[in-house]
Structures are given as C-alpha cells and as structure tokens.
Amino acid sequence: MSDFLIIGGGVIGMMTALQLADAGQKVVLVERGTCGQEASWAGGGIVSPLYPWRYASPVSQLSRWSEGVYPTLALRLLEETGIDPEYRQKGLLYLNVDDADAALRWARQLGKPLERVDEAFVHQKEPLAAAAPEGHALWMPTLGSVRNPRLGQALRARLEALHSVTLVEQCSVHGFIQREGKVVGVATSQGDRLAEQLVVCGGAWTAQLLAGLDVHLPVRPVKGQMIAYQAPPGLVQRVLLKDGRYIIPRSDGLLLVGSTLEEAGFDKTTDADALASLKASAESIVPVLAKLPVVHHWAGLRPGSPHGLPFIGALPEWQNVYVNAGHYRNGLVLAPASTHVLVDQLLGREALIDPTPFQPTAERLKAHL
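^ Glycine oxidase ThiO, sequence as received from the core. Prediction below:
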C-alpha cells in the first residue's frame, strides 16, 4: 500500500507527485494514457492568465506565486533530466485592450510592471506585428512561457528516476474501492491499487471519476483548437495577444496560435472553420504569416469550472480523497501554486497560500447543481 495514490498524470498530477516525493513520501501515479499528453501537452505554455486583471483575486494569487516558481523549476528539471522546458521570459505585448485603464489599476495595486505603449514601441519590440489602436497597447515585460510538451517530458523523466514514485501508465481507473465507509483504493485495468490517501487530478475527466463516489463536481470539458506555423527563428520574439487570441514563439521558430473555446463534450476532432478562424487571427497579429503554411493543427480539452476557480482539497464526505481540478484555461499557469496548496493539506503543513477559496465544500458543490 502506498502513502498516496494520484489519479491523472498531467502537469497537476506530476507536480503533486514530485512535491510529495521531495517531502519523503511514497507515491503511485496512475494515468490512463501517457503522462503529460492531454491538456498539459495541448496548451500554449504562457505562465499567466491571458488577462489577469479580469480574474478573481484567489486565481491571481495562485498565478503570481506560480510565475515566481517556473524559472527555478525549469532549471531544476533541466539539470535533473537533461530535458529543457524552455522557459522564456521576453514579455507580452497586448495589441488591443479595451479595458486598459482597469489593467493599469490592477498592476499598480500589485506592483506589477505593466505600461501603456505606442505604435513605435510595439514596432521596436516586434517589427512584424500589426499596428495597435492608439492607447490600447500594453507591455508586460515580466511575462514568461514554457514549452509545455517538454515540461511534461521533463516531469515524467524526473518521476521515473525517483525510487519513491511508481508511474503506472496505460491504466484506466474503473472505480473506487470502499471498505467500512472509507475509500481505500481504486480498481484499475491493471488490478487494484490501495493507498492511505487518494488525489484525483483527472482534468476534464475529473467529474466522471468522482461520479463513482456520488460527488457532483461542476467540471466539464471545453475544447480548444490550436495551430502552429514553422517560421524562421526570431521572426517573432515575444508573446503577442490580440482580441483573446495569441501567438507564442518557441526558440526554434515554431509559432503557436490559439485558441478556440468550444462546448463540444469530449470531442477532440479539428475542423476547417476553426483552422480558418485561427489563421485569420494569426494574420491580424502578424500579417506576414499569410505567406507561411500551417504545419500543425490539434485540439485539447480544458477542465472548465464556474468562474475558472479550481477545486483543491478534501471531498466533504470522503476526507481521505482529495481533488485538484477545474483550472479551466490556467492549468499550467496555476500548477506550481495549486499543487503546493494541496500538498500543504496532504502533509498537514502550514499553508503558504490560503486554501479556503478553493475547498470543494458541500456548499460550493451544491451551488452549481
């Protein structure tokens, strides 16, 4: 029997396992596919909510804490595994912000570098970017991004090397094992797994998993389609954001463009309409992309939740079953902080971040029935 059993091998599940292992715990992580291959792979890797001033303060607190962790985490994983998560901190240019005044007030309250810039400034930073409406362009110099597929690869490689962590992949969870009114493990396609504490980090599939305990968690799949261009390295240097769509550059010239927001259940197919819409957005941000072909087109499923506020903590009627899910568009953004919030609870440590707003209380669950 392990100390902890984690269900779900995305970035949230893997970071939870790593933090528990760092604290000397024995962990089994069960993943129905390959770790890091669902939403953790499919996203863009911006280490901030797209418009952070529009979120509730608890989400902002998690994102600010996580933002400070990523540079060190990326260096650690590179040294331990040889896999570079490619953390880049080259800032973000907002090309058309309607609520710029609100954004600047938010930044001043937090002491966050953010300034209004003119067309000449935008052109200096990104010569190929489209002109921004006067007074609507903002510059956030501290924003960073990671290459999320490689972050997932590095986390998986690190966990595989740890004797205290057992990765069980290609293993589906069929249900929870209960004895004398307590959950003691899970039944899987590879046999039963028992544990003292269970953590459900199933992303968009979390509600399906918890339904087996008659827990109705308001987390649903929200499809996001993305495309990528292969450009010469350096064509775009910084994250560019306009009207809710973004371009994220990688060091090898790959340019990610995203993303759609679709209520389509668990469907991950791509379609021509989304491709055309994403291409139009990309060309409105960097017009020269009209001359380049799209080399990739894919979709992932985000774990949507009310107000984008994740559920982090023990389930009301199952005190040894914990959940960490519902991060919506910000799973990778919030992962270091939200996993720290949970591990503090799992190990009875003093909380560095107030967990109260994220608890899956009976009142919070009932409010969304």
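DSSP finds ten helices and 16 strands in the chain.
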